User: Which sequence fits this backbone?
């Protein structure tokens, strides 16, 4: 089909999961202009209040279907035909079984939308609560930070906060890797040998960033402000590894938090939920996360 230009493209996600259902529910609730939305994967028009243009992929191989939706969306983004991508959940296991050995959708998008000057970063957003992961989908025993990683990712998220969120001087909070921020080397040396040098370099570059803070205390402070509806003290929290950042985020705002990929040619958003195979096809999936992902994509596009 002759593809027009759209604000967002939505991939329908795992064939066996809740992606189709939450996409339908979210679009029916939001009632967006048809000209703004392109659907990639499965035709949902008969189930929607408004009919949206669709690129249908004809394959029953679940993993290939998931991969190909992202590839098509990326090609359109590279051609300037879409301004943002919203992805429904997929199964990493399904991707692996079909021969696509990626640790997640973020890494697939990195391959198609990244280059030496643009690299994917995983940022979770719920109103003004933002958490960036310094490391992503890797085993915990392989988490290794470096000064370069912290500096590079901090500068990348600052660029996003300035350009996309209109924050002139972003304030960053850095989670320590070790319990109690290492207790001056008693519980680990990473804070002293890696994190503090990164902080000093960033400050020299004009970045407002804390020294490494004990993650439990930091998120207790962040969580209290979120639950009380108060403005966050920091514009972004830098978490050292996946669960350090996502356990508190999902405990606080699972339905509202949006998985946001920044640093690439276009913004990508996704709900925080997974494929939810256990409830797929029952019509009971909560589409709040998909609604939030679509709204944020439109805002940032």
Assistant:
């Amino acid at each position: 089909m002759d593809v027009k230009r759209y604000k967002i493209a939505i991939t329908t996600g795992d064939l066996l999961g809740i992606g189709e259902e939450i996409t339908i529910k979210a679009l029916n609730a939001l009632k967006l202009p048809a000209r703004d939305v392109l659907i990639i994967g499965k035709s949902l028009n008969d189930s929607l209040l408004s009919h949206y243009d669709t690129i249908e992929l004809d394959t029953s191989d679940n993993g290939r279907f998931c991969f190909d939706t992202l590839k098509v969306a990326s090609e359109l983004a590279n051609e300037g035909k879409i301004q943002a991508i919203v992805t429904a959940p997929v199964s990493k296991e399904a991707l692996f079984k079909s021969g696509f050995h990626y640790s997640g959708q973020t890494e697939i998008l990195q391959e198609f939308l990244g280059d030496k000057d643009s690299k994917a970063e995983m940022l979770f957003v719920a109103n003004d609560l933002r958490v960036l992961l310094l490391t992503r989908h890797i085993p915990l025993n392989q988490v290794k930070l470096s000064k370069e990683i912290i500096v590079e990712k901090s500068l990348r998220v600052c660029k996003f906060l300035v350009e996309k969120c209109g924050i002139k001087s972003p304030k960053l909070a850095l989670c320590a890797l070790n319990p109690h921020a290492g207790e001056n080397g008693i519980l680990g040396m990473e804070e002293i040998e890696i994190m503090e040098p990164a902080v000093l370099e960033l400050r020299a570059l004009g970045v407002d960033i804390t020294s490494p803070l004990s993650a439990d205390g930091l998120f207790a402070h962040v969580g209290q402000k979120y639950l009380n509806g108060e403005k966050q003290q920091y514009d972004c929290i830098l978490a050292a590894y996946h669960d350090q950042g996502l356990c508190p985020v999902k405990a606080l705002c699972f339905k509202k938090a949006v998985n946001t990929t920044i640093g690439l040619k276009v913004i990508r958003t996704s709900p925080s939920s997974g494929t939810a195979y256990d409830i797929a096809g029952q019509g009971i999936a909560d589409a709040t996360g998909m609604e939030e992902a679509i709204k944020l994509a439109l805002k940032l596009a």
Notes: The longest strand covers residues 6-11. The chain has a mean pLDDT of 95. Residues 62-78 form the longest helix (17 residues).
